[in-house]
Amino acid sequence: MKKIFLSGIAIVLFAYGISQSRLVTAEYQKTQQPAIEYDVPFPEKTVSKSIDEYFQKLGYKGKDTKGYLIFKGVRLPELGADTYDLYFKTGRKNKKEKEATTVTMLMSSGYDHFIGDTTNSTLINNGKTYLEGLTGRVAAYDLDQQIADQDAAVKKSAKSLTNLTGTGDDLLKKKAKLENDIVDNLKKQAAQKTESDKQQLILQTLKDKRKQ
């Protein structure tokens, strides 16, 4: 499984090309702020959920504000020793590339004090490196989701098979009972025919006596 997973990532990266993070300005609450952008070769929904799950596993709960998913007081070794507020925004890269998502990340030292390349170039470079590792994290998340979905499909299929097997057993029992009922009915028909013939004979005998 691990080999397949790693091969899958390699294929994705090869097909997509080596993506580089880049410095941009992004709008937040009607102001332009320094940010980093990175393109990920996965649908927006997958990317957004993977980011949210990643930070939840680290103990951080995100909050949706003004189109951004915000995590407060985050400490990531990849960024450095300090804590930061991280702002993430995802959107389709363009109309042609429906399966590609652009991720925008803003970093703040707190209270919306956003950090740019001129104020902390080391942090910005660390942030760029962190974002460039996003493809691998999203790929791992996507694979986990595929496994979970397939596991659910297998369980659903197994449950359907169990139900059908149970129904089949019930039908076989009903069939066996029906066959026994048919045999019993045929015996009763034969016995009843004998009785009917007997009664018909008695009737005919009585009628014959009346003619004498």
Summarize the structure.
The chain is α+β, with helices and mostly antiparallel strands.
How much of the sequence lies in strands comes to: 15-25%
Q: What kind of sheet is the major sheet?
A: 6 strands, antiparallel
Strand order across the largest sheet: 1-2-6-5-4-3
Helicity range: 55-70%
Any low-confidence stretches, pLDDT <50, length ≥5? Answer: 2-7
Structural class assignment: alpha+beta
Element-by-element helix/strand order: HEEHEEEEHH
- Rounded average pLDDT: 89
How far apart, in Å, are the first and last alpha carbons?
101 Å
What's the total count of β strands?
6
Overall geometric form: rod-shaped
- Report the C-alpha radius of gyration, rounded: 38 Å
> Total helix count?
4
Give the topology:
Elements: H1 2-16, E1 22-28, E2 31-40, H2 44-57, E3 63-65, E4 68-74, E5 84-92, E6 101-108, H3 121-132, H4 134-211
Helix pairs in contact: 1-4, 2-4
Overview of the structural elements:
The protein is α+β, with helices and mostly antiparallel strands. It is built from 4 helices and 6 strands; from the N terminus they run H-E-E-H-E-E-E-E-H-H. It has helices spanning 2-16, 44-57, 121-132, 134-211, and strands at residues 22-28, 31-40, 63-65, 68-74, 84-92, 101-108. It has a 6-stranded antiparallel β-sheet with strand order 1-2-6-5-4-3.
